[in-house]
Design brief:
Elements: E1 4-8, H1 14-28, H2 35-39, H3 43-55, E2 63-70, E3 74-84, E4 103-111, H4 120-134, E5 139-145, H5 149-157, E6 161-171, E7 174-184
Organism: Micromonospora robiginosa
Pfam family, one: Acetyltransf_1
InterPro entries: Acyl_CoA_acyltransferase, Bact_Acetyltransf, GNAT_dom
């Protein structure tokens, strides 16, 4: 059984968050996104973006959480980022007020594949839900690649379902379909097993 926990990200975590994002995308999205796009992702650029998200979040409701595997040493193995839904959470053509103020958007929920199926995704999601509840959010949304069966299955196992919104990301002249999932923020946190 994995020993692990979740905590808020710290400035010294940003390089590792960027490394996890890059490693995870290159494995999980290799059949979804063009290879040259994944090969050309810049880890230093990702680290700068995560540095800003961790050190200068737009609001107190914007959070980056990290999952830690605890063994002889501790390792960062995943992360989740969320904040109040904004224009990035909207579907194309959706009115700006389509997502009410009580909606939180998950922008990232990643566990490095070699650390998968050890409960880290469930712990990240459970910790995020606790924060969402404390911040007064009643609903959460997340975009997932239509072909990302693992993310869709994981979120689906915890009650998330498509809300009917779709979009296609233009990735180097290739349209990659996504669908938006949503869930009500539960009164009590019942974590799913992963």
């Amino acid at each position: 059984m994995a020993e692990g926990y979740v905590r808020p990200a710290r400035p010294e975590d940003v390089a590792e968050i960027a490394r996890i994002q890059l490693a995870t995308w290159r494995v999980a999205y290799r059949r979804i996104l063009p290879r040259h796009v994944l090969d050309n992702l810049d880890e230093a650029y990702l680290a700068r973006r995560w540095g800003a998200a961790v050190q200068e979040p737009p609001s107190g409701a914007h959070r980056v959480l990290v999952a830690v595997e605890q063994a002889a040493q501790s390792y960062l193995v995943g992360f989740a980022a969320s904040g109040p839904a904004d224009a990035e959470a909207l579907a194309p053509g959706e009115p700006a007020d389509a997502l009410a103020s009580g909606v939180v958007a998950v922008t990232d929920l990643l566990v490095e594949p070699r650390w998968g199926r050890r409960g880290h995704g469930s712990r990240l999601l459970a910790a995020a839900v606790e924060h969402w509840r404390a911040d007064g959010f009643g609903r959460a949304v997340a975009w997932a690649f239509d072909a990302d069966a693992a993310t869709r299955a994981f979120l689906g196992s915890t009650g998330w379902e498509p809300d009917g919104a779709t979009r296609a990301l233009d990735v180097d002249d290739m349209l990659v379909p996504q669908l938006r999932l949503h869930v009500g923020v539960p009164e009590e946190n019942v974590p799913a097993q992963r």
